[in-house]
């Protein structure tokens, strides 16, 4: 796996929205944070425009991201919002310059389309981390500090609280994944995740239990769990109860979907759409340990 160069003070970094439109106040706050890190934010042309729910029409959003990918002086590209939109343009991007001069791509949620394509097609690490949109609920020190550490090459290692559904064990493998619904939708596209021999990270927001179950069964039927080495479960938040009730919690639904496999499962990692969104280096080699007393994830390289 190719690891992009880590950032240093004075580096330029790009801010774009290839998905939903951006609320100006969130951008102003993110610019302050990056400036405090001694970085030089460069705002893309998608910061401000609105085209329905998205940050401009498809052509603008594609061109804006393409320009940031191609500029050598831009050392990292931050998606500022999630929502919807990347899947409409990601297959039209030209990664020829990026392949020779990789840079950190940062975001989560809809950015899962971009993460999976870059890892499976280009073999390059990316960062599943917090975005400007998260500043709606205020500044979370843990989330932003973990992102800073990842960008500047500082060591990451996390402890995970105990969870009654943890399936004990340990695994060492590259880390892939993101938002469950996106991974499911991406099957058969350039953004399809390669989970073979990997530790898979999953998180989700705002789904009904039956829909959560359907995503998991779809991945299972596509063989996405067959050669997984371990499962790291992030935030499963704002789930809406079915009527009639489905009868299982989100965590029980997930564990039931992988019951026949023997890889370790670690629940409760604080990443995704919850208040705390700790940064994960997707594509990196990690060691996952799950026990009844909790778990840990260590980035080996």
TrEMBL record:
**Molecular function, one GO term:** serine-type peptidase activity
Asked if Protease is a keyword of the record, the answer is yes
Gene Ontology biological process terms, A to Z? proteolysis
Looking at the keywords, is Kinase present?
no
InterPro entries assigned to the protein according to its UniProt record, in alphabetical order? Carboxypeptidase_A_C_sf, Class_I_gatase-like, LdcA_N, Peptidase_S66_N, Peptidase_S66C, S66_fam
Domain called LD-carboxypeptidase N-terminal: residue spans: 13-129
| Top-rank taxon, per record | Bacteria
Which UniProt keywords are present, listed alphabetically? Carboxypeptidase, Hydrolase, Protease, Serine protease
| Listed Gene3D superfamilies | Class I glutamine amidotransferase-like, LD-carboxypeptidase A C-terminal domain-like
Offer one Pfam family short name for this entry. Peptidase_S66
Q: Where is the LD-carboxypeptidase C-terminal domain?
A: 173-288
Q: Where is the active site?
A: 109, 203, 273
The Swiss-Prot or TrEMBL record describes its family as follows: Belongs to the peptidase S66 family.
Q: Which PANTHER family match?
A: MURAMOYLTETRAPEPTIDE CARBOXYPEPTIDASE, MUREIN TETRAPEPTIDE CARBOXYPEPTIDASE
Q: What is this protein called?
A: LD-carboxypeptidase
Q: What is the protein's species of origin? A: Rufibacter glacialis
């Amino acid at each position: 796996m190719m690891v992009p160069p880590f950032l240093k003070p004075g580096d330029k970094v790009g801010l774009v929205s290839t998905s939903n439109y951006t609320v100006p106040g969130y951008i102003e706050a993110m610019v302050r944070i990056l400036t405090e890190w001694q970085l030089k934010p460069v705002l893309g042309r998608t910061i401000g425009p609105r085209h329905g729910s998205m940050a401009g029409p498809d052509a603008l959003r594609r061109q804006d991201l393409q320009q940031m990918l191609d500029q050598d002086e831009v050392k990292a590209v931050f998606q500022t919002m999630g929502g919807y939109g990347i899947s409409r343009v990601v297959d039209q991007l030209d990664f020829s310059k990026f392949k020779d001069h990789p840079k950190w791509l940062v975001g989560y949620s809809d950015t899962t389309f971009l993460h999976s394509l870059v890892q499976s097609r280009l073999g390059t690490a990316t960062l599943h981390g917090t975005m400007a949109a998260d500043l709606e609920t205020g500044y979370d020190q843990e989330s932003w500090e973990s992102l800073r550490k990842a960008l500047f090459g500082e060591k990451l290692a996390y402890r995970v609280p105990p969870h009654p559904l943890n399936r004990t064990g340990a695994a060492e493998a590259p880390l892939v994944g993101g938002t469950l619904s996106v991974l499911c939708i991406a099957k058969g596209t350039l953004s399809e995740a390669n989970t073979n021999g990997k530790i898979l990270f999953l998180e989700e927001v705002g789904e009904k239990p039956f829909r959560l179950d359907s995503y998991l069964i779809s991945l299972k039927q596509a063989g996405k769990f067959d050669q997984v080495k371990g499962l790291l479960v992030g935030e499963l938040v704002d789930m809406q109860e079915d009527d009639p009730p489905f009868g299982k919690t989100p965590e029980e639904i997930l564990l039931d979907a992988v019951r026949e496999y023997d890889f370790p499962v670690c629940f409760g990692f604080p990443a995704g759409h919850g208040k705390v969104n700790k940064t994960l280096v997707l594509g990196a080699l990690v060691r996952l340990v799950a026990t009844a007393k909790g778990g840990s994830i260590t980035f080996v390289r």
